[in-house]
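Practice problem: predict the structure.
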Amino acid sequence: MTKTIQFVKMQGAGNDYIYIDSDKYPIADPNKRAIEWSAPHFGIGSDGLVLISKSTLADYRMRIFNADGSEAMMCGNASRCIGKLLFEKGYTNKTEIELETLSGIKILKLNIVDNKVKSVTVDMGEPKAELVDCDGRGKKKMILELLPSDKVPFKGTAVSMGNPHFVIFVDDVEHFDVAGMGPIIENLPCFPDRINVEFAEIKENDKIRMRVWERGSGITMACGTGACATAVAAAMTRKAGKKSEIIMDGGTLVIEWNEETNHVFMTGPATKVFEGTIEIKED
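Answer:
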């Protein structure tokens, strides 16, 4: 027996996911489906799978699964896409939406022009230090510190945006070996749950060029939480101010670390790529 599933493919700064209304189309094995459908050539092709449903704690709930099937805690780019989808598909007429994620409830503020969502600002919450045990003596903050590996001779800063990030500032990010260094850092023993890795180059006027290795997905065009972590790390180390533009392979996000609330706000576009259906066999 087969079941037909409707989906929407969307991208935020090139970070593309498959979006499904899981109230209407329940997915029994999202880990497996994320692997199958994310595969280029043989599937739909994406960075992962996002399930949207009504929430008892907020307006809506998001579950996100990486291309390797692992469940992620949060994705800023996916959150913006959800805001656009919910409004333009008529699920809601709210311009401020509460979204439940594994890293807490996020607030989406929609910028509407001619009844279309031009951009979305996401309140990403308070950044925190990602505590790391580098020497077996207990967890501690890492701010421009070396990792315990001869293979990784770079200083970095560990930041949590509800999910873990390690930000490394480099001189020439365009020619940096992200594909080589990313998986090594992601899987170091000091990161037992693995970690997202950002490689960033400081430009002029609070502009930062960033490339990312996402845990569970590898190199992606963009990462919303990674952009936030990079902006926070740059501000913490006085490499940039509290508001910066993070330039990624897929586009640019504006990140502001608000001094009054201590919250990080991410603003950027979201785009529908196409809609479609896919059939799955049910046992």
